[in-house]
## 1
Amino acid sequence: MGEYCADPWQQVGLMLVTCFNNTYLLFYPSIILGPLSWGWGVPSMIFIAFFSAYSNWLLAGFHVVDDQMFIRYRDIMDFAFGKSMYYITWILQFVNFFLVNTGFILAAGIALKGINSEFSDSPLRLQYFLMITGAVYFIFAFLVPTLSAMRRWLGMSAVVTLTYIIILIVISVKDGFSETDRHYGIKGSKSDKVFHGLSAIAAIVAANNSGMLTEMQATVRKPAKRNMRRALYLQFTVGIVVYYSITLVGYWAYGSLTSGFLASDLSGPKWAKVLFNSLAFLQTIVSQHMFLAPIHEAADTKFLKLNQSLYSIDNLIRRFALRALLFLINTLLAAVFPFAGDFLNLIGSVSLIPLTFVFPSMIFIKVKGKTARTTQCVWHWAIVIFFSVLSIAATFSTIRSIIHNAKVYSIFANI
C-alpha cells in the first residue's frame, strides 16, 4: 500500500532531523542529566551517540542481502534467524512505536495545558488535553496515510521545529544567566543513583534511535544503502547537535531542580510561552506520525482491500476504524498513566537497545561471520553481549521506577 524507493535522501534526512528534535527533548534535561549530572551524563551521551550512529550505519548495509531486498526490519531477522526472530522483532517494534506515541500524546497534552495555564489560575485537568491531542493525531493519521505522503508536511514541520527551538534556547539562556543559585547534585541513595542512571542511559538511546530504519530505507531512492547513510549523517551531525544542545542548555540553566517538562521552567512574557507551547504541540503531530507509520502500514496491509485504491470508500472506512481504535487505546493509556519519563525509559531499555545495538551485530555475525576477520567477529560479539546485559539492567531499573511511581501517584493523575 506504500510508496517505495521514491524519496530523495534529503527528504528522509530532514524527516530524521525534525522528528528527533521533537517535544520529547523537553524531558531530556530532567530524565537524562538529572540522574547522571555532568560527570556521567555527557560521556554517556557521547558514547550512546557514537554507537547509535555506527549501528544504524551498519544496519543500513543490510538493506539488500544476496540480491534480496528487505523493506521491513522483521524481514531481515526472518531471513537471518527464522520466524521466531521475525515475531520477536515485530513485537519489540510494536512496543516501541506504541509507547513512543503514548509519550507524544502526553507531551503534547502537557503543552496544551501549559497554554491553558497562562490564561487561567485553575486550568483544566490534563486528561482533557490528552483527548484533544489524540483526536488531532487521529485526523492527521487518517488524512496522511503513508510515510511518503508526509513529504509536503516536512517543510512546515522544519520551520515550526526551528522556531520553537530558537525560543527555547533564548529563554533558557536568559534564565541561566539570571539564576546563579543552581545545583547539579544527583538525588537519592547510592542504589537509587545506580538504578536512575541506568534508566537515564535508556532514555539517551531513545533520544537517538527510532527502531524503524529499514522501513524508512525502503522509501529512499536507489542506491538505498548510500542514500540512507547520507540521511543518517545528517541526523547525527545537524540533528544531534540541536537536541543534545537543548539537553545541555536546559540542565545548565535550571540544574537538578529542573521540572520533568522543560517548558514549565521557562520564564518570560506570556506571549512567548503561549507561542512556544503552541509550536511544540504542532511539531509533535508530524513527529508522532513518523514513529507510528509502521503500525499503520501493517494494519493497512492486513485489513485494507489491497486490490482497491487507498482512497476507495471501503478502504477509507476501514482506515478510519483502524486509526480510531489505535488512538483511542493510546490516549486512554496516556490518561491513566501520565508518566512520560517512564515511557521514554521503557522504550529505550525494552525495545531500542536490542533493535539498535544487539540485532545489527547479530545480523553481521550471521551473514558475514564466515568471511569476516576474527577481530570483526569478536567486536560484534562484544557489542551483542554488552548491550544485552545493559538492556536487562536498564529494563529492571525502569520497571522499578514505574512501580514506585504507581505507588506515589494515582491513576489519571493530573500532573
## 2
Amino acid sequence: MALFQRTAPAQAAPTTDPGVMSLGTKWAVAGAVGGGAVAGLLAAGSSALAVYFARRVITPARQRAADQEVLAVIRDGQKHQVILAATDDTTVDGRYGFFFDGGKGHARIGRIVSYSPAERTVLREVEAVYSGDLSTARWGWWSGAVYPDPSAAGIPAEEVAIPVDRGEAPAWLVRAGGRARTWALMVHGRGATRQEALRAAGPALELGLTSLLLSYRNDGLAPSADDGRYGLGSTEWQDVEAAILYALDNGAEEVVLFGWSMGGAICLQTADLSRHRHLIRAMVLDAPVIDWVNVLAHHAQINRIPSLVGRYGQLMLGHPLGRRLTGLSAPVDLRAMDWVSRAVELRTPTLILHSVDDEYVPYGPSALLAERNPEMVTFETFNHARHTKEWNVEPDRWERLVKAWLRQQLAPRLNPGARTSG
C-alpha cells in the first residue's frame, strides 16, 4: 500500500475550502482504493487457488494422465524391448505395469537393458503384453500394478460382489486350501484399483490366508459416493467394514488388513472405528498416509503453492462452511487421521513398508509412528522404490518381510492362564 501513497510538497499552502480535497488527500484516497483493490485481487486469487487445491485432492480423476512417452518398440526374436523416455520412474530397475491407449492396453515391463543419460532414453525388456498393441503406443502411464487380473498372476480367483451402502462393490476372492479362519482384506490406494493388491495375494496364499481384493467408493468399480468425492479414508472405511462382514458371513473368524497409500489411511480408520476391530489381527501397510496434513503440505510445496494457501485449502476440507466450495457432503476431519499425534491409540499390530525416496507420501510420519509406538508398529525402509513400488523393486525382500512378520502375528495365542511347556 505504501507504494501508492504520496504526500503534498512542504511548501504547498493548505486549502481553506472544506469542499475541495488537497493534493495529498487525493493521493491518500487513491492509494487506499488502489491498495484495497490489489489486496482484494490477491485474496480472491489465493482463495481460488486454495479451492482448486482442495478439490484436486478429493476429486477422483476420470482418466489417468498419459505422461510417459514410448519412443520405439524393438523385436528381438520372440522377445520385445521398448525404448522409453528416461524419467525418475523408468530408470529404476524392477518389474512394472505400463498402461496405454487410455488404459485399454496393458504390458508388463521388466529389467533395464541399457540407459543413456545423454539421450535421456532407457531400453527395457517387455515381459508380456496382456492387451492392446504396444507397437502403436506413443504415450501411457507407469504403474506398480504388474498384472491385470489374478489369472495373469497365476492365481485362481472368483469374482464376488460385496453389499455396500449404494449397491455392490466387486472384489476378487482368492481362496486358500482347507478352511481358512483368517482372511486378508486388501485395500488399494487413491487413483488405483484392486490390481494394485495382486502382488500380495501370492504371499497371503502361502500363509494359508483367503484374500479379498476390494474395490471401494469412487474407484471406478464400486458405486460412487453421493457427493462423488474421496473422504481420504474418513468414509471409505465403511466399505472395508462391509467386506469384513462378508468375510465373517463366509467363514472367517478374524482378518488381516493390507493397504497401499490412501488404502493405508483407510485401514487405519477401519481399525479405529469398526465395530469388528477386535477381529482385526494385524495390518500390513505399504507407503501409507499416516498424516494427511503432512501429505497435503508436501504436495502444496512441490506444486509451488504458497504454504498459507495450502493451509487454507486444508481448512476448507475440514470446515463445514467449506462444503459448498469443495463439494463434500461432510467435512473431512484431518486431525482424526493424524496417527503421529494419535500414535499411542493404535492398538493393532502393524507392519509398515515405506521407501525413503517416496515422492508422493513422505516416509517421515511412518517413521515417527513406529518411533512413538514401537510396541505395535514395525517399520521397514526401502530405497529407490518411490511410491508404493517397494515390491516392484525388491519383490523377494518384500514378500520375505511380510510373511515372516505375519507368521509371528498369526501364531496361536496362549490363554492368559496357560502354562508353557519346557
## 3
Amino acid sequence: GSTIETKRDFEGIESKFSLRTAHEPDEDICYLVPGQDDTLARCNFNHTSKTFVVIHGWTVTGMYESWVPKLVDALYKREPDSNVIVVDWLSRAQQHYPVSAAYTKLVGKDVARFIDWMEEQFSYPLDNLHLLGYSLGAHAAGIAGSLTKNKINRITGLDPAGPNFEYAEATTRLSPDDADFVDVLHTYTRGSPDRSIGIQKPVGHIDIYPNGGGFQPGCNLGEALRLIAEKGLGDVDQLVKCSHERSIHLFIDSLLYKDKTNVAYRCNAKETFEKGLCLSCRKNRCNNLGYTVNKVRAKRNTKMYLKTRSQMPYKVFHYQVKIHFFGKANVTKTNQPFLVSLYGTASESKNIALVLPEISTNKTSSFLVYTEVNIGDLLMLTLQWEKESIFSWSDWWTSYTFDIQRVRVKAGETQKKMVFCSRDGISYLRKGKEAAVFVKCMEKPKKRGPGGGGEKSCEKTSSQHHESA
C-alpha cells in the first residue's frame, strides 16, 4: 500500500500511547505514534521484551489518577526490561459517564490499530503483549482484543465497570474471547447489578472476587473519616474509589511481593467459601491472584474467592475448621460469637473473632478462619464461645453446654489436613466460659488390612497414657 493509504489508516486515532520509563513512571515524555515508525526507536522501545499496555478508566478531573504511576513503577520493578505503555484517552474519559462508557468502543479500536501496526510493521509478537485495563479501561481492552488481527496473549481486567455493561453483549465488553487468557479481579460489586460500580458477572477465564467482591476491608466510613482528618477533603474521591481501586493495588501487590503470593480458591458462591468448604487445590481449583496466575482455561468461566488484609501485603492464610457439637438436648443457636486462637511452629494468632451463622446439637459445623500471621504448622487451637457484649436474657436463661471431642482443620495454603483432640478427652463449650483447648491427636498404631489406617483416635485414656512419656 502507498504511504497515503497508511496515513489515512491511522488518521482517526485519538488515543495517545505514552512509553513511560522506570526512571520517570509519572511523566509522559515520549509517544509511540501509529504510522510514524521512527517513534519506536526515538522512545527506546525494546523489541525483544514483553510489553504492558495500561488503560485507565473514567475520570472526573480529566487527569490521571494516582494509581497510574504506581502500577507503571511496579511493572518496571518486576520486569525491568519491559515496555510499559500508558494509553491516554483522558479527554473522552472525562465526559458524562454514559458518554465515556460509549467511547470505550473507539478507544478499543484505537488500541487494536496500534497493536496491529506494531505487529505488521515491526513483527512484534503478540505473545509478549499484556493489556491491563481498569474500570471502563477493562472494557476498552476487551474491545481492543476482539479487534486485533491476531490474538493478544493476556488481558487483566481490574474491576471492570458495571453500569451499561452488566447486561451488554459480549462483543461490547470484556469477555474470555478477547485474548488467549483473560483474568479479572472484582472488588466493588455492591448493590443491584445495574447499579454496581464493578461488573458482577464473570467476564474472563478466571474471575477472582477478593473478600466476596462486594466491598474491601479498610474501605469503611471509619477509615474514611481518618483519611479526611489526616489528608483533608482533597482525598474524598479516594474514598468512593477505595474498593474499586483495590483491584489495582492487589495486582501491584502481586508484582512487588513475590514471596507473598495471594492464593484464590474456586467456589460456586461466597457463602460456600465463608464456610471454608472451598480450600482445595486439586484439579486447578486454586490459583495465584495477579501477575503469576496459572493460565487455566476451563470450558466455562471460573469464579474464585479469597480473603485479604486491609493493606499491602494483602496476603492471609486460610483454614477450614470443622467441629461436631455433641449434646443431650436438641438446641440450635444462630449468629453466635466465637474467638479462635491458633498456635503454630512459627508463631501464633490469638483471638480471631468470628460469628457462626448456626450451631446445632449433633451436627457438624464448618467455617473459615483466616489470619495474616504465618503461624507455620498448626500445633494447638483454642475455641471460646463469647458472651454477647450487651446483657441479654437468653444468656442468663440458658447456660447450655456443647461437648466437643475433636476439631478437624484444613490449611488452604499448604493443603494439609489435621485432626485435633480435646486435651481432656471431651471439652465442654459454654457461653461466656473459658476456652476449650485442642491439641494434635495421638496416632493409634496403624492397623494392617482394610479400613485400618489414618483415622486418628482421641480416647479419653490417651492423655493419661502419655503423661509420663
